[in-house]
Each structure stands twice: as structure tokens, then as C-alpha cells.
Design goal:
Elements (H helix, E strand, L loop, with lengths): L1 H9 L13 E8 L3 E5 L8 E6 L3 E3 L2 E6 L5 E8 L2 E4 L3 E6 L13 E5 L3 E5 L6 E7 L3 E9 L5 E6 L6 E5 L3 E3 L17 E6 L4 E6 L2 E7 L12 E4 L2 E9 L9 E10 L6 E4 L15 E3 L1 H10 L11 E2 L5 E5 L3
Parallel strand pairs: 16-25, 22-23
Antiparallel strand pairs: 1-4, 1-8, 2-3, 5-6, 6-7, 9-12, 9-15, 10-11, 12-13, 13-14, 16-17, 17-18, 19-25, 20-21, 20-24, 21-22
């Protein structure tokens, strides 16, 4: 704690914007590390000129890409002249408010957070929960409730313990069914294949033997945590609260992990990540972290197709997944 206090004296805190800033389509960024340094140049060996704290919100108007001697591309946000921040520790976000009178189905439906960060409560106008919900996270919406002032709230499922959360309805959009329709449904399951290369941290997608897409990911940091082998995506869910197992020394509690397509029985999955943007580097406890929009594409592309009224879906077979060392 003393080090953080000293840092605050030595460096100024970078300019931020209000968490509820109504920006609409303006691109913002959320700091996702306890301290995120601002550098004079797009390099971690250059002079530190300021810093951000966890959950600070900034404007990110310009991105700069630098290729190092190993041909690795690093992305930096230019905040101003002489102020650069590594994009690995900034979650791209927006603040978009919503109004909806769409009925909530009896079984519930999927919702996606559209604000950079949102307070969570035990009941409408109840006590605050020691959690914030973040942009691009997804939750299962159980019902819409109006408080005594006529303000709408959403009751969300806590899928870890069967309980519930409450948030102001403006912070979430209800995901329409057309966004959940399968991609390439005419291609048979046995003619789709996913290949993850651990060395390159790239995942490739094939239809009838032809590559149709690829993207960078972040798999398990520890050797073997993302296992090599042949698997299948036969279990899927559009959202999940992920909590570490008691024996796991890495403590985490991540509500609203979006677009989960499982590849092993013990929970290794492709899914969206909102706690870093360090794509191409191993970051996880074993799962394959992806940009939320990329994980959504995978969720829609791989088999089985999940009915829109179901929170969890499992079949005997799914799309083949090859996890290989790479070259």
C-alpha cells in the first residue's frame, strides 16, 4: 500500500471521465489492472508520466501499433501528445443507455451490459453488492421490476448459487433472437473444425477443410492448463459466473462471463474476457479467453445451436476442437 501512496505523489493521475458519462458511440476504455501506467512513448521502457487506477474510465481516441524485433505487434492508446497506455490493460467500452418494454419470457432471456460499469443491488433500491458489472458481460434476465418511483430494474440470475442480482434496466440491453441465430447452419457438424495453436495463441476455424476465420486468444498461463488433444464443443451457455475451485490458489470471482463454449468436461471453454485485452499472450487458468465479440461469433458458429430460451444446453456431440502446440 505504501508503494501505491508513493506513486500517487510522484505521478499525476491521468484524466478520466465519469463512469456514467453518456457517451453513446464514443469509444472509452476501462483500466483493468490495479495500476496502469501512462508512458511518454509507446514503450514500457520509456518515461512514466501518469497512471490510472483500476476501473478508471478514459477516452481512447487513437490507437498506435508498434512491431518489435520479434515481429510481435503491440497496441497502444494515444491519450494525448506524450501520453500512451498499453492496450493490454484497457477494456474497450462504451456507455449506452437503454429503454425497453420487451416482455421477459417465462424462462427468462439473455441480457448484455452496455455501460462501462454498473452498480449491483440485493433488491431494487436495496443494499449494494460488493461487485460491479462491466461492459459486454452477459446475464440471464429473470424479470423486469418497477420500484416505487416507476423506475425499471432487471432481476438477474446468479448462476453460481441460484440467487439473484438487481440492476437498473438502462444499463442492459436484451439480446434479440436474431443475434443468436447460428452462423453457417448449412455446414454439417462433422465438416466444421476449430484448431487452437498454443505457441502462436491463434485459433482458426474451418468449414469443409477451408479456413474461414482466425483470431488471437489468451489461453492458460501454466503448462498443460489448456490441454493438448482432440475435444468437442458439446456444452454451451451464453453467460456464466466463474469462481475458482477451493484448491485453486488463483482466487477469482467473475460474474457475467459471456459466450461460453466448453471443450472439456472440467470446464475449459472458449469465452469472452473483460478483465484484460492482452491478446496473443497466455493469461488464463486454462480457458481460452477471447474478445467478447469474437467469443460470440464462436458461440454462434460451433455446434450445437443453443435455443434462445435456454440458459444451458448440452448434446452428445459438438464441433471438433484440435488443441495443438503449433510451430
Amino acid at each position: 500500500m505504501m508503494a501505491l501512496g508513493t506513486l500517487g505523489v510522484m505521478l499525476p493521475r491521468a484524466e478520466t471521465v465519469r463512469a456514467d458519462f453518456e457517451s453513446g458511440p464514443t469509444q472509452l476504455g476501462r483500466a483493468v489492472n490495479s495500476i496502469v501506467h501512462i508512458y511518454e512513448e509507446p514503450s514500457t521502457v520509456s518515461k512514466k508520466v501518469a497512471y490510472l487506477r483500476y476501473d478508471d474510465i478514459i477516452k481512447v481516441p487513437e490507437i498506435t501499433s508498434i512491431t518489435d524485433k520479434h515481429k510481435r505487434v503491440w497496441h497502444w492508446y494515444k491519450l494525448a501528445d506524450g501520453q500512451y497506455v498499453d492496450s493490454a490493460w484497457i477494456q474497450p467500452v462504451f456507455n449506452i443507455r437503454n429503454v425497453s418494454d420487451q416482455p421477459i419470457p417465462e424462462k427468462g432471456c439473455l441480457g448484455e451490459m452496455t455501460m462501462a460499469k454498473t452498480e449491483v443491488f440485493t433488491a431494487p433500491r436495496g443494499e449494494k453488492i460488493n461487485h460491479l458489472f462491466y461492459y459486454a458481460t452477459t446475464f440471464w434476465v429473470l424479470e423486469r421490476i418497477f420500484d416505487e418511483y416507476g423506475i425499471p430494474w432487471y432481476k438477474l440470475l446468479d448462476d453460481f448459487n441460484g440467487g439473484s442480482y438487481y440492476i437498473r434496466a438502462y444499463a442492459m440491453r436484451l439480446v434479440p433472437d436474431e443475434e443468436l441465430t447460428p452462423i453457417s447452419p448449412d455446414v454439417p457438424m462433422e465438416e466444421k473444425r476449430i484448431q487452437l495453436e498454443i505457441l502462436t495463441q491463434k485459433v482458426r476455424f474451418f468449414e469443409r477443410g477451408k479456413q474461414v476465420w482466425e483470431t488471437q486468444v489468451s489461453s492458460g498461463k501454466e503448462k498443460g492448463s489448456t490441454p493438448y488433444g482432440v475435444f468437442q464443443t458439446n456444452r454451451k451457455r451464453p453467460c456464466r459466473r466463474m469462481v475458482n475451485e477451493p484448491a485453486n490458489p488463483n482466487v477469482y470471482d467473475l460474474p457475467g462471463v459471456p459466450w461460453c463454449s466448453y471443450v472439456t468436461d472440467n470446464g475449459v471453454a472458449f469465452h469472452g474476457a473483460y478483465w484484460h485485452s492482452n491478446w496473443g499472450q497466455r493469461m488464463s487458468n486454462g480457458c481460452i479467453n477471447m474478445r467478447p465479440e469474437d467469443a460470440k461469433w464462436v458461440y454462434r458458429w460451433c455446434d450445437p445451436a443453443v435455443p434462445t430460451d435456454q440458459y444451458f444446453y448440452e448434446t452428445e456431440k459438438g464441433t471438433r476442437v484440435d488443441i495443438v502446440p503449433g510451430e
